[in-house]
Write a structure and sequence with these properties.
The protein is mainly beta and 72 residues long. It contains 1 helix and 4 strands, in the order ββββα. The termini are far apart.
């Protein structure tokens, strides 16, 4: 997901569905978090939704994604 500030984020796979309600005009805040895998959260205060993300240049740890999706 690319934001208007030019930052590009990779959304945690289990959170992707939450972003389907977001429009190009949705105002998103980026908040740094302390988490084992995700570095930031994108927050849509209007819809009261948030998703966990990492920088788009980073790769998800495959084992962690499988665990979160119930595949391993």
């Amino acid at each position: 997901m690319e934001l208007s500030d030019g930052s590009v984020w990779r959304i945690w796979p289990a959170d992707v569905a939450k972003t389907l309600q977001w429009l190009p005009t949705t105002e998103i805040d980026v908040v740094e978090i302390e988490h084992d895998i995700c570095s930031h959260t994108l927050i849509d205060h209007a819809q009261e939704s948030s998703v966990s993300v990492i920088d788009a240049s980073a790769e998800w740890p495959v084992a962690a994604v499988r665990r979160s999706l119930g595949d391993g």
